[in-house]
Amino acid sequence: MLLLPGSLLAAAAVVLTVALLVVHTEQKHGQRSFWPQLRGWLDRRCDSLAMQMRQLVRVIVVSCMYVVHQLRAGLARAIAPQPRKPRKQRDKLQFEKTNNHLSDMHDHKSDSALTPAQKKKLRNQKLEERF
């Protein structure tokens, strides 16, 4: 029963010791000497995995910021005072219903308006006076 965990612990200790010795000798020489192609390939894969994880974390952070912003904006809209709805427009304006000087001016203007022929004649007459 205790044989399996003990043997696993011993094997892990041996593998760790060998890995530390390999790393120490490679650091002394300044180059990789133990499976350089395999370790280079593993380094590239680990770098690409790390870059993908950074991008994933960035997307998650931006998404969370967007959700928080939307919640804040919705809460602000819910709390903000609503503008008053405009009243229905009445059929006629107030001064048109009463008999005051504005309605008298309006009536006089429509009664004394020149016809298009009279406007043309008056314009020609004014132009002749200038020249």
Write the layout of secondary structure elements.
Elements: H1 3-29, H2 36-79, H3 94-97, H4 101-111, H5 116-130
Give structural notes.
This protein has a domain at 37-78. Helix content is 77%, strand content 0%. It is built from five helices and no strands.
Supply database-style keywords.
mainly alpha; 5 helices
Shape: elongated
What kind of sheet is the major sheet? none
Overall structural class, as computed from helix and strand content, comes to mainly alpha
Estimate the helix proportion, in percent: over 70%
Structure described in brief:
It contains 5 helices and no strands. The protein has helices at 3-29, 36-79, 94-97, 101-111, 116-130. The mean pLDDT is 86.
